[in-house]
Amino acid sequence: MGLMDWLFGEDPSDLNEKALKQQWHMNNEMWAYNWSTAQDNYAFAQEGLAAQKMNQSALNAAKEQAEFNAWQNRENMRLYEYSKEVEAYNAGVASYEEQIDYNNIAEEIAINDANRAYQDQLIAFGYQNQDLLMKYYETAEQADLDIEGLEKKVGQAQNLATLQIDQTGINRDWDAAQAALDGAGLREGLAATKADMAFKSQQSRLESIQARGQQQNLNQSGRSAQKAIASLLASYGQGQAAMADSISRAESKYLLDKRRISETLSHKDKLSNLNYRQINNTLLNSVQDAETAYTGIGLKFSQLKDRTEFGREQIQQSIISAGEQDAADRNRITMDKYQQDIQAATLMTSRPTAQPAESKPLQIPETTYIDPQKPTPPPKPVLGANTVPQQGVLSKVGQVMSLAAPFIPPASDIQLKENITLVGKSGKGLPIYEFNYKGDRNQRYQGVMAQDLLTTNYANSVIKGSDGFYRVDYRDLDVTFKKV
What we know:
alpha+beta, 2 domains, rod-shaped, single chain, two-stranded antiparallel ribbon, about 5% strand, 4-stranded antiparallel beta sheet
């Protein structure tokens, strides 16, 4: 027995035939299994393709309806915004017209106020001018009265001086006459005194003679008779001496009184001359005062005339200035109205123009599908031949299965991502991010966020999966989902 016999316990040729039969039998079973599997896969691919067609048709219908609804909403919004713009424009026009009417009324009121103020100024200037003229004429009349009063005072002073001169002359004549009378009285008094003294001297002489005769008739002689006669003689002499002394005193008093009368008359004459000078000085002073007052009146009147003319010139200049100010006020009012009109015009919006209507969305073209290739049975195994399954058939089946598999959009929900960084925007204005999926920190991706698209015209590209997270169909976007 050989080694093979020892190993297998049978004849090697029998064993080989038996192995070939077993291999052929297994190949037949594998052929039947593969053929059945290919038919099952073909049927499954057909069902998947039918489901994909149904889903794609439903998705296209939903997209078309969504796009139409979005277009309808945009159209309604366009018409609504246009109507609102028309309403705003009409309201702006009405407000502009009201503002213009208000500005016209305000301008009219302001011009009336300016006219009233200007007229009030002219009236005030007229009153000022009339007041200046009244003061001027009143002062002129008063000056005439003052000059007339001065002339009367000068005339009164001259009359008074004439009266005083006449009175002084009368007093002077009276004093001279009185002095003459007093001198005559003194002379008469002196003559009467002398006559009286002569009478008394004669009487004393008679009495002395009688006394001597009586003494002699006493027939006395001797010393006692002599003494008695001597005594009589002495008494008579003393009487004569006393009368002579009285006459002498009377003459002295006459001379003194006459001198007093002369001195008094001289004094009064001097006083009269002084009165003449005083009267002349008073009259001269009155005339000079009158002339000074007259000059002062003329000066004041001249100054008043100058002030009046200056005041009237000021009033005239004020009237001119008031006219210029009135013109400036009118210009300012006109400019203010013009500015308010411009401001009202700037607040009014431009006439609205309806935006062109957006074209209705096009229907999504029908998707062209390729039916999965119908499998063909491979050649049956032949006993004793190599029956390794053909890789090409299985690969084709796999390719058909991949074609028939439904499209699954990638997950783009922000809740599934982390380390999110905005890196730019697409041509259509969509934000582009780089991120990691949670649980996969070693790989970075680039794409969009589903939540961003929900508020844009690409909301129809967002799909909510059965797991509750959003997915994005990138086929309608200008952004590519990729690894980075």
